[in-house]
Write a structure and sequence with these properties.
The chain is α/β, with parallel strands linked by helices. It has twelve helices and eight strands. Bound molecules: 2,6-dihydroxybenzoic acid and zinc ion.
Amino acid sequence: MDGKIGLEEHFAIADTIGDSRGFVDDAAAVDLKARLLDFQDLRLREMDRGGIAKMIVSLNAPAVQRIVDRAKAVEVARRANDLLAEAIAKHADRFAGFAALAMQDPDAAGAELKRCVADFGFKGALVNGYSQLGAPESCLYYDLPQYWDFWGVVAALDVPFYLHPREPSERKAYDGHPWLIGPAYGFAAETGLHALRLMGSGLFDKYPRLTLILGHMGEGLPFNLYRIDERIAWSPMGYPAKRAISEYFQDNVFITTSGNFRTQTLIDCILEVGADRILFSTDYPFEQIAEASGWFDAAAISEPDRRKIGRLNALKLFKLDS
Ligand code: GRE
Ligand code: ZN
């Protein structure tokens, strides 16, 4: 399919290039580094070959979220966004951007998102899970009260917030099994939990137009919506939100195909959340565009659904002209 739009697609700057290394082997790391830093060359060729018209590009992970010094986090986010804006400007027809945000400082994060939308035309924010502030063992989730004004800024700007994975904050359960920590499982467990915290906190009752994006086919959540709803309804622990988790999935959440190129899983997601709320993505350069496109273009779904997931939903959600 030509004209696809991808939106979990990453780049890196000097301050963050080392962050991705731990999750790939040394041989792959060299190539990964080159691809993360490149914008105008290999990336465009791969896009052309895979039928990808446009990428909404974001900083790698965990990057800004792991910088415990508040001022430094704010500075790195700003630098990354400035560099991204410069790179996009050279090929504005092929690239758009998501802002990196220093969530260690909610006011600064809101101001930076405003700046990126107003000055650079960025399409929203992509944040790599919880933030650390002051000490490495700290862990800030965005349902906490200090973030609710920030969410008001996101809602007023009417741009989506992509909650991207990072490694789990709780490591005890992974002791002795480091292979579980990264993208194989821990990323999804961590990110799914964070997304449920946001939904269950009542955040979307306060801001009904707020939009969250989850990658990797919804980080495992679509498969479990029935059970989550059902058991919350019977929970003796209480539940702060007004609506069921599956209802927020219908009205406030989009999911992408990033790094989860599996027709069985896509069909389950179409059945659970509908083809209108699913968006094609690769997760370049951690995944290969040829693999993502080869799979998606041939997947056994209807042609109207392929057009929606590959392109039309993104045009609408991000108010793109092309
Ligand atoms: C990602 O951005 O999703 C990612 C990483 C590191 C390894 C694998 C992966 O940041 O998918
Ligand atoms: Zn990613």
